[in-house]
Amino acid sequence: MKVAPAFLAQCREIVGDEYVLTTTTAMAPFLTDWRGRFTGRALAVLRPASVEQVAKVVRACALWQVALVPQGGNTGLVLGSVPDASGAAIVLSLARLNCIRAIDPLNRTMTVDAGCILQQIQEAAAAAGCLFPLSLAAEGSCTIGGNLSTNAGGTAVLRYGNTRELCLGLEVVTPQGEVWSNLRGLRKDNTGYDLRDLFIGAEGTLGIITGAVLKLYPQPKACVTALAALGSPRQALQLLTLMQDYCGPSLTGFELMSQFCLQLVADHFPQLPKPFSGPYPQYVLLELSSSESEGHAIGLLEKSIGAALDAAIIDDAVIATSLAQSQGLWRLREHIPLAQAKAGKNVKHDISLPISNIADFIAATDPLVRQAFPDCKLVCFGHLGDGNLHYNVAPPDGVSDETFLANQDALNRIVHDSVDRFGGSISAEHGIGALKRAELARYKSELELNLMRTIKKALDPLGIMNPGKIL
Questions:
Q1: pTM of the model
Q2: What is the rounded CA–CA span in Å between residue 187 and residue 174?
Q3: E strand or H helix at 259
Q4: What is d(CA 40, CA 90) in angstroms, rounded to the nearest whole number?
Q5: Which of 23, 134, 201, 432 is deepest in the core (most CB within 10 A)?
Q6: Is 426 helix (H, G, I), strand (E, B) or coil?
């Protein structure tokens, strides 16, 4: 049955003619993933302005059995927010749902639309004298709805947890076009199944997140940053233990970066700082947040760094003495993905492991990858404090991106099999999307997959919510 004209006419009545995009030019920004690796097709791109409009669009999709792909900032890395090549689905952009609905400093909560940019939320929290601690490289363009749908991580998970831990309640449009709202901001609500956690991390396959209540925290009195140079990932783990023993919950960030990562940044962003006169095999960027004073934070950092030097865990360290220096050190970490993009294509792996197994994983996996792909470049960095590595592999000099990427499946098999052997996960904070769907089927048990399919079928019996993603 050909439904497009009548269906689109109904959509225009709901959201307005100018917000139903159907031309190739108008739809283009919504159809290509952030890395530029895939471009899908769509029946149309819809840009509703309210929860009510979202619900009406979903009801129309259910009536006409038209699939829909929810989209926030489209900064995902696993093809979760773009349509497939069939052209049968619509893209439902939440970008116009971008209001801060309420801030309650006493309850330490903020209620927001799903289309709010993460940086907008951070700034609104700061203006209210509070902190919203979620922080990641795409914070200037990603939306909180996308963060919740992928259960995003970022650099402060060690202290504050993933996005799931930062959310107290959701507003969701179900696949039937009904609006479920649980925006009460309760920290304790033991009244049955936790529906909130069901939708967080579901990547829009069970419903569309349109609003959320987020946790706020007191603004720290001071944040201090240091970059430590050391010889191996195993020493980095020793440093993590030492810092946790000395600093406890004040330890907010703990990022591992290899020498190759920083050399890549230096090659493509020579204006950024070079903290050490010579190279070291590994580096750890760490941050402390103090609720007392800057002097307390600096004293704690100096004491713990001194203990690490005395124990020969680290070889050298630089402590930032100003906000500008701290920002400069963080830019080194934040520019690694940007430097990778400038250098060319690479095969990305967003993995997590028990923290105690990370050094063994790297020691075992590096030679396996190099044996299969001689002279390839290993770009290994990530959030060591919570066990999340970005274990990326770039082609050798002289090998084209296309030639190297033709071996992506074989490379994934080596890395993901190793992750599985060491008790890890093939996706730590980026989700599954369409890119890792086959990999999920390989590493999840049949029981787990069947339970997930049962939930999907129960909530979305027509299969219209972001089809082809996760399952």
A1: 0.93
A2: 24
A3: helix 259-268
A4: 11
A5: 134
A6: coil
